[in-house]
Amino acid sequence: MGQALTLPLVIGHRGAAAYAPENTLAGFRAAKALGCVWVEFDVRLSADAALVLCHDDSLTRTTNGSGRISQLPLSSIRRLDAGSWFDGGFAGEPLPMLEEALVVCDELGLGVNIEIKAERGLARATAAAVATCLERLSGHLPVVLISSFLLEAIAEAAERLPRCPRGILWRKAPRGWARIAQGLGCATINIDQRYLTESAVNEVCAAGYPVLAYTVNDPARARQLFNWGVASVFSDAPDIIAPTTGCDSAAEARQGASR
């Protein structure tokens, strides 16, 4: 129903968001320099259906621009500075397109978790665009996990790319979570670490799904989560989390079983 997936213990969140502007190529290079073997990033559609890396629907927080990405053309978005807000040393860093991010991550040897973001009514279109991009780059891709809070996006990804592993995102797993995950053929369950308990982790693991916890920036909390059986944590500061694992090769530390 799903695909086997080898997961690292620590995944760089939006690249390495504590050290470089999030969702940028500079962030992925920083994550690699810190020892990451996987990164996570967010994608959403521009007004002219280009896939741009950005967490928010608005450009205000992470660029020198403003407005909704879904209402602006790529040409306008590409002129923006997505680095200076973080640090002057990153001035001029652009918001990358998905294809650029995949090419760079492949060159760096980084696996990727692509989180699909979308405004109302755009979930399926965004997932379809992601699928088209992955199909176009077939044979020249890093390891990919697609994830989303949006059930329609996951369903579209399942239809378009049935062999590509998918993860469902929840803040807290809802009642009937296993039925939903099974119906969508999910390979992972990605949950907000603030709502995780040992019993919740045990329940998900007993059903055969690896738990991926976001966002973990406290080494003590990471140790607790790993002791409970969490497969991977997303971290803005992966370098301070990795030593807590006691494993030099995070990529080989834990196998993510799937359903």
What does this structure look like?
- With 259 residues, the protein is an alpha/beta fold.
- Helices cover 30% and strands 19% of the residues.
- It has 9 helices and 11 strands.
- The chain has helices spanning 25-33, 74-77, 98-108, 123-136, 151-160, 177-183, 198-206, 219-228, 238-241; strands spanning 5-7, 10-13, 38-45, 51-53, 111-116, 144-148, 166-170, 188-192, 211-214, 232-235, 254-256.
- The longest helix is centred in the middle third of the chain and has 14 residues, at 123-136.
- The chain is globular, with a radius of gyration of 17 Å.
- Residues 246-259 have low confidence and may be disordered.
Name the descriptors:
259 residues, alpha/beta, eight-stranded parallel beta barrel, two-stranded antiparallel ribbon, 11 strands, 30% helix, globular, disordered C terminus
Helix segment tally: 9
Q: What would you report as the Rg, rounded to the nearest angstrom?
A: 17 Å
Helical percent range? 25-40%
What fraction of the residues are assigned to beta strands by DSSP? Answer: 15-25%
Low-confidence stretches: 246-259
Shape label:
globular
Strand order of the largest sheet: 2-3-5-6-7-8-9-10
- Give the ordered list of helices and strands: EEHEEHHEHEHEHEHEHEHE
The main pleated sheet reads as:
8 strands, parallel, barrel
Structural class: alpha/beta
Strand element count? 11
Distance between the termini: 6 Å
What is the residue-mean pLDDT, rounded to a whole number? 93
